[in-house]
Automatic annotation (TrEMBL):
PROSITE patterns (alphabetical): ALDOKETO_REDUCTASE_1, ALDOKETO_REDUCTASE_3
Start and end residues of each NADP-dependent oxidoreductase domain: 28-263
Keyword Metal-binding among UniProt keywords: no
Keyword set, alphabetical order: NADP, Oxidoreductase
Assigned protein family: Belongs to the aldo/keto reductase family.
Keyword Oxidoreductase annotated: yes
One Pfam entry name: Aldo_ket_red
Name of the protein this chain belongs to: Aldo/keto reductase
Amino acid sequence: MKITDINGSVTLANGVKMPYLGLGVYKAKEGNELENAIQSALETGYRHFDTASMYKNEEGVGAAIKKSGIPREEVFLTTKVWNSDQGYEPTLKAFETSLKKLDSDYVDLYLIHWPVPVKYIEAWKAMEKLYKEGRIKAIGVCNCMPHHLESLEKEGEIRPMVLQNEFHPRLVQQELLDYCRDKNIQYEAWSPLMRGRIVDNNQLKEIAQKHEKSVAQVVIRWDLQKGVVTIPKSVHKERIRENAAVFDFELSAQEMQLIDSLDKEERTGAHPDTFMEQL
């Protein structure tokens, strides 16, 4: 990944450009909170927004983007099909519902939120249909391990272009990153700041102090230097701006290794193999 500025992107397996820094809107409430967050992000230069049907704010995301006056084609919009909507026909129906709420003719990236046994395969086939019709620019999955990806490759026709998983210094899963790199699947981080918990780490504080940056900025920069697309969530203007101010410094190889070494296989969310028991 070539890191330049907030306008930078990665090129997915099918040639689609995906901005490597975006705004996550999980738990952002529709109304002023969401609209102000998206407005602040757009003013800062963000052009990538990640929502999901489960977040119950697709309508607000679509409305805020439209209100901004920024052309739709300049914005990269991601949403996801929820667990109860998986299966072939249910996924097609769920997509239509999301599209209507987003007030858009297409989605840039559509993801399976969690791999519901058996149903996620049929959901994938429905997404392949929508992709072939041009209504989705890229398709992928969330919260998957290699065996899920291999099942999709075996049962489907198109390999996932993106894998969005929990990823932060306490959950690196380097073997999974390497697997995705070998398969040309773009890795994307959710909960890159470990729901705020990572900012208290003393080793990260030392690195941040050296670069005169916040711990959050160090972690986001680490994501990018690892080749991982990242979507830190915030509804606060100052934090949204801070999270984007990561292009005027670089972590050394030694610092990258130190951050990697913080890995404890510690999750804030469910494990992809046992999520049905945990959600």
